[in-house]
Amino acid sequence: MDKNPVFPEALIDALRTSRHVCVLSGSGISAESGVPTFREAQTGLWEKFDPHELATPEAFLRDPELIWRWYRWRRQLVAKVEPNAGHRALVDLASQVREFTLITQNVDGLHQRAGSDSVIEFHGNIFEDRCFVEGCIVKDASDVSSAVPTCPACGGQLRPGVVWFGEAIPEDALDKAMAAASSCDLFFSIGTSSLVWPAAGLAETAREAGATIVEVNPNPTPLSNMSDFCLSGNAGTVLPDLVSRLLVPELRA
Ligand code: APR
């Protein structure tokens, strides 16, 4: 196996000279930790359910117990896995550049567990509870083990603190992500199919503002043709190699 793949010199130069690197990650970066991507997430008991039909406010209203059973299953799955080399390489990358912003569509918290800070959680966090009525994050639900926990403040039903299909992105996350995308000079899209909006539009915002676009993905996506560099491969291999190339000048091809 090639341990020191050749990255384009122009990409290494762009990284070394960049003012602000912005990364958008998707479920592909957690795949090597053992978290199935959202579209593959249905196994065992949940095989017969379509995630697009479970991850909606309408589904919660129809059957909150079912939705809680699904999210509890996903929570225990995510709690058992560990961050991988791709997550860790982004921690190293952050320490090598002047300004770094990490935006993730993932709700698994693995970037934070790897050591990334100030992560912008575009789609929320699976371990948080949110009041379905008031929308506030609830830290102290007392009846967490009941089929549908309730808000200690208003008594309304609690839901998982994630963004479901058809829902708005949390305002703070959207503002920060848009600001980073429009001010960075290097934008990485890592492990995302670039199909789900508005996250998919962040790369376009960055490109229109003049940033260089880099995609890391083993498969082509709608962003590939608009990217300046497509690094084809798994994030857990490509990212550590890229960062080591940045750190050790003698690895230059
Ligand atoms: N390294 C990098 N990319 C990978 C890897 C890997 N090891 N394995 C898979 N991929 C890529 C796939 O080729 C695919 O393009 O990750 C992407 C996963 O795509 P999706 O399952 O569509 O995940 P994502 O883009 O994160 O979905 C966005 O949609 O379902 C909603 O809210 C959910 O946050 C999610 C959003």
Plain-language structure description:
The chain has 253 residues and is an alpha/beta fold. The chain is built from 10 helices and 9 strands. Helix content is 36%, strand content 17%. It has 2 domains: 9-35 and 83-123 and 169-251, TPP-binding domain (Rossmann fold), CATH 3.40.50.1220; 37-80 and 127-162, 2-Layer Sandwich (SIR2/SIRT2 'Small Domain'). Helix 6 packs parallel to helix 10 (235-247) and helix 8 runs parallel beside helix 9. The mean pLDDT is 91. A 6-stranded parallel sheet has the order 3-2-1-7-8-9, with helices on both faces. Strands 5-4-6 form a 3-stranded antiparallel sheet, with helices on one face. The longest helix is centred in the first third of the chain and has 16 residues, at 64-79. Bound molecules: adenosine-5-diphosphoribose.
CATH H level of the largest domain: which superfamily? TPP-binding domain
Strand order of the largest sheet: 3-2-1-7-8-9
Question: Which molecules are bound besides the chains?
Answer: adenosine-5-diphosphoribose
> SS-based structural class?
alpha/beta
Looking at the structure, the CATH topology of the largest domain is Rossmann fold
Dominant shape: elongated
Order of helices and strands: HEHHHHHEHEEEEHEHEEH
Rounded radius of gyration (Å): 19 Å
Q: What CATH first level of the largest domain would be assigned?
A: Alpha Beta
Number of helices: 10
- The number of E-state strands comes to 9
Beta-strand content bin: 15-25%
Q: Can you summarize the main beta sheet?
A: 6 strands, parallel
